[in-house]
Specification:
Elements: E1 11-21, E2 25-30, E3 33-47, E4 50-54, E5 59-64, E6 69-80, E7 85-95, H1 98-105, E8 116-125, E9 138-144, E10 148-156
């Protein structure tokens, strides 16, 4: 009987996203936290050997759960320069000291080194060339800027 433990998964770069965002819709305190909806207005994507854009019309549905923790649920569509569409469903957490979180909520720039921003994006497509993304898990890290969110996405091997 083999008792070797499974190896830790490696990471392969998939894409760098720059997601433009619009003005925040503050819903206010709910049982899930301080609820906010942030429209996604566009952006760019650069993968290994391909590029594209973030289509307007998606949104980031946020809950500020505690003064230091935000849970994020963003859904939007990418369009490659070749015309392929990719649906994105990205679950994330953002953790920072309460004063930094308050600055982020106000839309102010903050030092990214003070923020733990990690995500688990899922990608779906009908593209034959990119069909492999339907069969992989991804992780990423993000940086929130006042007008956009930059996300580096990696496929787990």
């Amino acid at each position: 009987m083999d008792t070797a433990a499974p190896a830790a998964p490696g990471l392969d770069f998939f894409a760098q996203l720059s997601v433009q965002v619009g003005p925040v819709h503050e819903i206010g305190p709910t049982p899930a936290g301080n609820r906010r909806v942030i429209p996604i207005t566009g952006g760019t994507v650069r993968g290994d050997g391909w590029t594209g854009r973030v289509l307007p019309g998606g949104a980031d549905f946020q809950a500020i759960v505690t003064p230091s923790l935000a849970r994020l649920d963003a859904r939007y569509v990418l369009e490659t320069d070749g015309g392929d569409l990719i649906y994105v469903s990205n679950q994330a957490i953002r953790v920072a000291p309460p004063a930094v979180t308050a600055s982020l909520v106000r839309g102010e720039p903050v030092d990214p080194s003070l923020v733990y921003f990690r995500c688990v994006p899922a990608f779906e497509t009908s593209s034959a060339a990119l069909g492999w993304i339907n069969e992989r898990l991804f992780v990423g890290s993000g940086v929130r800027h006042p007008d956009r969110v930059d996300i580096a996405c990696f496929a787990l091997r």
